[in-house]
Amino acid sequence: MITEPKIRIQQQVFSDYTDDQLLFLKQMGIQYVYVLFRDQHTDYDSVMSFVERLRKYQLIPTDAGNRTIYKNPAIHLGLPDRDEGIERFNNFSRILAKAGIPITYMTWEPNGVLTSKYAVGEHTRDAVARIVDVDQLAKEPYSHGRLFTKEEMWENFQYFLDRALPVCEEIGMKIALHPNDPPVQCLKGINNLIISAEDYKKAFAMAKESPYLGMKLCVGCWLEGGAQFGNILEDIKYFVEHDKVLSVHFRNVSSCVPKFEETLMEDGYMDMYQVMKQFVACGYEGPMNVDHVPEFVASCGGKDSANAYSTGYIKALLNCAVAESGK
Ligand SMILES: [Mn+2]
Questions:
Q1: How far is the CA of 85 from the centre of ligand 1 (A)?
Q2: Which residues neighbour 209 within 8 Å (Cβ) at sequence distance 6 or greater?
Q3: Which domains does the chain have, with CATH numbers?
């Protein structure tokens, strides 16, 4: 028996997961999950009843969110109904806090995760995966009628912080901010908020270094951006030491922008064992998950088996890193 590592390997669940899907996670030795609540499950009773269902399988929800609430263009772009959007965000935070879930999300992506196609790529072993060609995405028209500058995005972010952080402080809720994916300057007329480690530092300074604003450290986004995003190993050290890392997306890609494919852990350009060893060496103790991976053939479990394969890979990397470090 090996010592239980301090990093909490978790898996994604949606609030409409079946009992069998939850049992499958328990069978994999998963104890922690993050929950994406469906739109129809964002009221207190629905959140609580799902938390109760998780409990039956000894699954602990470490963090949660609802994509419609946190990927709300009105908040990101300062549209007329943003106050209503922020109020919904704050109300859902209150519900999650009451249900005992201490971390929620924000991603400044009014257009979601941008993708050229989901298809078999050159590096995906005949599995369907996310493929991005930034030059192709750059040809797409404005999504919201005009160009939104980076200055405006920072102003909108400050407006959100001023109204969300006081509520977070009151209820003990932390916000994990995810980078823009792909992390490039501007797509569809929207200048992206977080495309580098420097942008994160600016965001934390704007929050006056409040402990209630942290990050989802998406290794995938860091690797997509390459040097323009930062140095993944140095940045892990910096942000873990500054207590900014609330969760980790552990993911590999084939190359940096402008063109990349999402791959299995062992097939991307990064040596993920080095990344894991750095998290262990820096004493990171929060949740970590696979983010997205190529999807396996449907009759053999599709997304569930794809996630299981990569989660097992991460658990093995973690156990090796812990054993090697003696921590
Ligand atoms: Mn991610």
A1: 23
A2: none
A3: 8-325 (3.20.20.150)
Question: pLDDT tens-digit profile of 92-113?
Answer: 999 999 999 999 999 999 999 9
- Where on the phi/psi map is residue 145: left (φ > 0), alpha (ψ -120 to 50), or beta? left
Decide: residue 46, CB within 10 A, 0-12 exposed, 13-18 middle, 19+ buried.
middle
Report yes or no: 178 and 215 within 8 Å, Cβ to Cβ: yes
Cβ atoms of residues 149 and 78 within 8 Å = no
Measured in Å, residue 61 CA sits from the centre of ligand 1 at 18
pTM of the predicted model as reported, rounded to 2 decimal places? 0.97
Measured in Å, residue 180 CA sits from the centre of ligand 1 at 9
Structure tokens at 308: 């299981």
pLDDT tens digits, one per residue of 196-230: 999 999 999 999 999 999 999 999 999 999 999 99
What average pLDDT does the chain have? 97
How remote is the CA of residue 90 from the centroid of ligand 1, in Å? 23
H or E stretch at 64: strand 60-65
Q: Do the Cβ atoms of 29 and 4 come closer than 8 Å?
A: no
Distance 249 CA to ligand 1 centre (A): 5
Measured in whole angstroms, the distance separating CA 320 from the mean position of its chain's CA atoms is: 24
201 C-alpha to center of ligand 1: Å?
Answer: 18
Q: Where are the alpha helices (DSSP H) in the chain?
A: 19-27, 44-56, 67-70, 73-77, 82-98, 134-137, 150-171, 197-206, 219-225, 232-241, 272-281, 302-325
Query: Roughly what angle, to the nearest 10 degrees, separates helices 44-56 and 19-27?
Result: 40
How many residues are recorded in the chain? 327
